[in-house]
Amino acid sequence: MSDDQARRPGESFLAHRARLKSERQREPEPAPVSQAIEEAPAGQSAAVAEPDAQPLTDADMPPLESLTAESDFTQFLAEGVSDALRRAALRKLFHLPEFNILDGMNEYDEDYTNFEKLGEVVTYHQRRMREREEAEKAAAEQEAQRADAETADEQPVAGEVSANAPAEEAGAAKENQGADTADGSLEDDGDLEA
User: Fold this and answer.
1) Residues 6 or more apart from 67 whose CB is under 8 A from it?
2) DSSP letter string, 76-110
3) Rounded to 10 degrees, what is the CA torsion of 141, 142, 145, 146?
4) Are 20 and 7 in contact (CB under 8 A)?
5) Is 1's pLDDT higher than 50?
């Protein structure tokens, strides 16, 4: 750091930055390109004179089919080339075999959809999972059979209903009514209290 760029004693950070900015603004402008061409050695004048040349356009580009790994793709990056042609050229470049080599260092390089089959080998975890699934399936079937058996016991079969069923129901109703009035008092529901 030069003495001009060093922070002076007692100078705040903002004052220091403001002083450096004002000093940079006072520096002379660089020479224009035309003066640089005149002052440059003869071998370098052609390289500096290129910015004055016509900008490349889509018509100046070689056909995409003719591009190889040795082709110059930098011309497709010129300002006058359309974005669609630039993308197509870069797509062609990165699809070349030289750029499609897997180094094996990235975990996403390989195709994990085509894995090697285990064949007849059944691992311990696979066997335990299969046993658990079979046990759950057997328990579900037993529960379903038990539920079917319980519902079958509760429902009378249509052929087993007796012909005296209505008479038996009527007799049972009379017995209940007679039991209520046998002692001569009505049951107190709690609603009749005065």
Assistant:
1) 73, 89, 92, 93
2) GGSTTS-HHHHHHHHHHHHTSGGG----S-STTSS
3) -150
4) no
5) yes
Give the three-class secondary structure for 121. Answer: coil
> Is the C-alpha dihedral spanning 128, 134, 135, 136 positive or negative?
positive
* 49 contact partners, CB below 8 Å, separation of at least 6: 37
What region, left, alpha or beta, does residue 10 occupy, with left being phi > 0 and alpha being psi -120 to 50 degrees? left
36: which residues sit within 8 A by CB, 6+ positions away? 48
Q: Confirm whether pTM is higher than 0.90.
A: no
Nearest Cα residue to 62 out of 51, 54, 72, 50: 72
Question: What's the DSSP call for residue 160?
Answer: G
